[in-house]
Amino acid sequence: MSHLPDGVIDELQTLLGPKGISTDADILASHNAEARGKFEGKAEIILFPASTEEVAKSVAICAAHDIAIVPQGGNTGRCGGAVAGPRQVLLNLKRMNRIIEIDDRDFTATVEAGAILQTIQDACAKHDLLFPLSLGAEGTCQIGGNLATNAGGLNVIRYGNARELCLGLEVVLPDGSIWNGLSKLRKDNTGYDLRDLFIGAEGTLGIITKATLKLFAQPQHVATAWLAVPSPACAIDLLALARRHTGDGIAAFELISGFAHDMSVTYLKGLTRPLATQTDWHVLIELTSSRPNDDLQTLLVDLLSNAVEIGLATDATIAQSEKQRANLWAIREGIPEAQGFEGGSIKHDVSVPVSKVPDLLDRGIAAASALIPGIRPCPFGHVGDGNIHFNFSQPVQMEKSDYLARWESLNSVIHDIVTDLGGSISAEHGIGQLKRDELARYASAEKMKLLHAIKDAIDPDHRLNPGKIV
Predict the structure, then answer these.
(1) In this structure, are strands 345-346 and 250-257 parallel, antiparallel, or unpaired?
(2) Residue partners of 327: CB distance under 8 A and separation at least 6
(3) Pair 16, 49: CB distance under 8 Å
(4) CA 414, CA 416: separation in Å to the nearest integer?
(5) Stretch 177-200: mean pLDDT
(6) Rounded to an integer, what distance in angstroms lies between the CA atom of residue 286 and that of residue 366?
(7) Which Pfam families would you find in this protein's record (predicted)?
(8) What is the pLDDT of residue 1?
(9) Which of 210, 160, 147 minimizes the C-alpha distance to 184?
(10) What is the mean pLDDT of the chain?
């Protein structure tokens, strides 16, 4: 028996047509599934609107029946932010996937929220332009979800998070009205910044339907290297040296633990070790330039020679072909998949000031080992912007279920350290349901008061993605 009021499905079917709505069990099962398996959706209906107007009218119908709506993009999130309950409607934007315009004079792209990130990247590349947001799920995630979670990824050190890459938005509000904030303006000081209010709000304040994105010149040269470093502290000093040496030409700077590296090259087919040197810590660095005559290879050779000479690196290799570069990136990007071969994994998406990364790793590894003897730390991530995916694999002799039962206690230990270092418990994956209670625990009373006030002002009936963030 449906939990939805009589007649509401008929109204939505009339509005959206046969392609715009589904109650099929198999379709619902795929969209109710959550990436990490920590949450299970209960939605009995999913909407696939084809336009902003259909989104707006769907929201208005649901509002009239006091039904909550959960917006959903590519469903690649990690915090349960797109999971619906039994009396809630899922609204997926995958049919709204047009690249509306690419403007090579304003260096902007205007797109619908359901456009796949990689599709946007490829479309811009055809105009010799770059949309630099890049992450592991880019082949399936949707730009609306990227903006709703303020996604980060690999190039934040050079280009910033999703928030820095967006100029304007179109948003459907909780009552079904439409705020048209699409704009190519680089400067606009007319009151509160509404765009930034919706970016990172995880669909709790409005449903993003279109966006105007900031583009850059397509890189003409790329130079990529893999280094063995003595410690995370040396990696941070190497980063500072590299920024000065290259004139902030760094596009990515990734720290990888020895355990994470070993898992990738052991379990993932076709990957080869970049170095013969065995080390506890690795760095992947990439330089890019859009200037036609830049010699990044020579610049990188000079940087690495200097780093080895002063003891910040013990060994290094520079990719000499696209195949070699792809191998280096596959090692880094394959870590989450490879970690699954070592049993249960408890993950943390945290950030601290860049200078505090070594303290985080030292203190976090010591505290986790004291809490769960035999635990195997697997930290890696975007050390260039202080965002570490501080993962831990289960002890070899421990049952997976027993280990995963320690999730909350390990979270508390790591998040206490992160907070003490002036960091954030959510660097780029959002809050969703997973970290909602922890946000309330770690945030100041003043911040929580403001978050609740904003939610109550814009969505007083809490019909948009209820139970997420606050």
Answers:
(1) unpaired
(2) 271, 272, 274, 319
(3) yes
(4) 5
(5) 96
(6) 31
(7) FAD-oxidase_C, FAD_binding_4
(8) 47
(9) 210
(10) 96
Distance CA 210, CA 145 (A): 11
Q: What is the pLDDT of residues 140-163, one digit of tens each?
A: 999 999 999 999 999 999 999 999
Helix/strand/coil (H, E, C) string of 182-230? CCCCCCCCCCCCHHHHHCCCCCCCCEEEEEEEECEECCCEEEEEEEEEC
Is-contact 70 91, C-beta < 8 A?
yes
Each residue of 318-356: pLDDT tens digit?
999 999 999 999 999 999 999 999 999 999 999 999 999
Whole-number pLDDT of residue 35: 78
Task: Kindly report each contact of residues 460-463 with a partner whose C-beta sits within 8 Å and lies 24 or more positions away, as own/partner.
Answer: 461/63, 461/66, 461/174, 462/68, 463/62, 463/63, 463/66, 463/67, 463/68, 463/69, 463/174
Give the bridge partners for 341, in sequence order: none
Q: How confident is the model over 81-117, as pLDDT tens digits?
A: 999 998 999 999 999 999 999 999 999 999 999 999 9
The token pair at 174 is: 């909780």
Radius of gyration over alpha carbons of the chain, in Å?
23
Residue whose C-alpha is closest to residue 363's, from 388, 394, 397: 388
